[in-house]
Amino acid sequence: MICVAAVALQGVATAQSKIGFVNTQKIFDESEPAKRASKKLEGEFAKREKEVNDLGNRLRIESEKFEKDSPVLSETQRLQRQRVLADLDRDFQRKQREFREDVSQRRNEEFAAVLQLANNTLKEIAAKEGFDAIFQDAAYANPKLDVTQKVLDALKSK
């Protein structure tokens, strides 16, 4: 009897709560601050990306040239060109890895700021509209609980 009353009271308390959820990935994909952060990153890394791509193209061209010339090269020439290609490949791999790591680190920094802004905006919406809880990235939630568009709209002005 007491368990039934507790469940009934819990249902009443839940019925009075206002909850929502927000899709963080959608915020990262569609919000104005996230788009600005992406453009900033593209501009910041465009030159290095071109350098890495150019080095990769050079490695590919040199490898193709070596394959074509290999039958007519002496053993000494072949070994020398293989060493040059190996050095070029190591340099390419290193620069590519460093580039990816730097991009990843800066992306994390920029998108942490976007997430902080989105969370602050979400808190403002929750306070203004009387939400008791807003969850991020629910495994499932009824679409009428989704407040993502409200956050996106509020972020347009920030």
Write the layout of secondary structure elements.
Blueprint: H1 2-16, E1 19-22, H2 24-30, H3 32-69, H4 75-129, E2 133-136, H5 148-156
Parallel strand pairs: 1-2
3D structure, described in words:
The protein has 158 residues and is mostly helical. Helices cover 78% and strands 5% of the residues. It has helices spanning 2-16, 24-30, 32-69, 75-129, 148-156; strands at 19-22, 133-136. It has a two-stranded parallel ribbon with strand order 1-2. Helix 2 crosses helix 3 (32-69) and helix 4 crosses helix 5. The relative contact order is 0.19.
Structural class, by secondary structure, is: mainly alpha
Low-confidence runs of at least 5 consecutive residues: 1-9
Count up the helices: 5
Secondary structure tally: strands: 2
SSE topology string: HEHHHEH
Number of domains: 1
Kindly identify the CATH topology: Protein Binding, DinI Protein, Chain A
Question: What is the radius of gyration computed over CA atoms, rounded to a whole number of angstroms?
Answer: 28 Å
Mean pLDDT: 90
Strands of the widest sheet, in order across it, are 1-2
- The portion of residues assigned to helices is over 70%
Gap between N and C termini, in Å? 53 Å
CATH homologous superfamily assignment: Skp domain
CATH class: Alpha Beta
Question: How much of the residues is beta strand, in percent?
Answer: 5-15%
Question: What best-fitting shape do the alpha-carbon axes yield?
Answer: rod-shaped
